[in-house]
Amino acid sequence: MPQNASIDNLAGLAADLRATFPGLRVAAPLRVLGAGFHSLVVETGDGVVFRVAKNREATEGHAREAALLPAVRARLPLVVPDPHWYTGPCALFPFGVIGYRKLPGMPLDPSRLIRADTSALAAALGAFLHALHSFPAPEALALGVPGPDVQRGHLEQVRTTVLPPLRAALSAGEYRSVEQWWDRMLADPAMTPDPTALCHGDLWYENVLVDPMRSVVTGVVDFEDANVGDPAQDFAALRYLGDRFVAATIDAYRVAGGSLTPTFAHRLQRYWELREFGGVHFAVTHADEAEFADSLRKLRAGAILNPAAHAPLCMPGG
Q1: In this structure, are residues 16 and 28 in contact, taking their beta carbons and an 8 Å threshold?
Q2: Helix extents (H) in the chain
Q3: Percent of the chain with pLDDT over 70
Q4: Model confidence over 130-143: pLDDT tens digits?
Q5: What pLDDT score does 318 carry?
Q6: How far, in Å, CA of 114 to CA of 75, rounded?
Q7: pLDDT digits 0-9 by tens, 225-239
Q8: pTM for this prediction
Q9: What are phi and psi of 114, to 5 degrees?
């Protein structure tokens, strides 16, 4: 990330954005919305959101969004970003930057589900996922969205990256469980579903925007991990909101016309377990000791090493 693109130098970041996009005013002050694994996210004083890429993974994700979102947004029942401002790697932004008018709403907070009309939220997400998964896969691939072969290669690369440091950090029994999990998952014929579909790739609650006063979904953001792959992955990410919410979303998906194959619940569980390795992979790749320690804690509390706390989803109607 460039020197100016930091939480401590928002004035410098604003100047770099003005220089990169001369037709945009970039009204001050900038406000930090988030600082995730891949991007620093800021909002200008007049409501433009910029995601400043921190690494090569973000560069690839932003390019994917810039190509995909204009093609898919008109076919979806919920609002998604419209990337008016985008550049790949350049002098001021070595990993690139992407921007769009801020969408209405705020990130879905699991604690708000107690007060919210969860059936309405689940119905909106079920309809959204059906529409997204119905987007023609060949068209998505032609836009540069990675397909199943790329996803498979990524999984194998994650395994190769995370296992050596985990061998050193885990007990012998814990490591054996993790290694065996990877062996079973990569050899599992059910994990190559047919048909595949355009997927969001990271549909956890912070990427779902809601109006908490009216209990409605107002939009979906962050398509960096979009891929043509297994639809089950999008439901797995929703398990952070609880299995009852996921079951309601699956019901709504079916009502909208979506169909599930017999191995769907099995694959959803595997993708839920796989999510525990995202933080480990980032921490190892970027030598982030604090993130590695936190990811190790989550792995030990997660579905692979603590299966009693993460039973497989009980599918609606069965």
Answers
A1: no
A2: 10-20, 56-72, 118-134, 137-142, 148-169, 172-187, 232-236, 243-255, 264-274, 276-285, 289-301
A3: 97
A4: 999 999 999 999 99
A5: 47
A6: 31
A7: 999 999 999 999 999
A8: 0.92
A9: -65, -35
pLDDT single digits (tens) 193-228: 888 999 999 999 999 999 978 789 999 999 999 999
Closest to 26 in 3D by CA, of 90, 99, 103, 89: 99
Rg, the chain, Cα only? 20
Interhelix angle 148-169/289-301, nearest 10 degrees: 100
The residues, ordered by sequence, that sit 6+ positions from 223 with a Cβ below 8 Å of its Cβ are 61, 64, 65, 68, 69, 80, 81, 200, 201
**How confident is the model over 257-316, as pLDDT tens digits?**
999 999 999 999 999 999 999 999 999 999 999 999 999 999 999 999 998 877 777 776
Cα 185 to its chain centre, rounded Å, is: 21
The residue among 257, 255, 251, 132 whose CA lies nearest residue 196 is 132
The string of DSSP letters for 259-315 reads ---TTHHHHHHHHHHHTHHHHHHHHHHTT-HHHHHHHHHHHHHSTTT-GGGSPPP--
Rounded to whole angstroms, the Cα distance separating 291 from 279 reads 7
Number of residues that make up the chain: 318
CA atoms within 13 A on the CB side of 93: 29
87: burial class by Cβ within 10 Å (0-12, 13-18, 19+)? middle
Residue from 14, 20, 184, 144 nearest 87 by CA: 20
Q: What domains can you pick out in the chain, each with its CATH number?
A: 10-101 (3.30.200.20), 106-309 (3.90.1200.10)
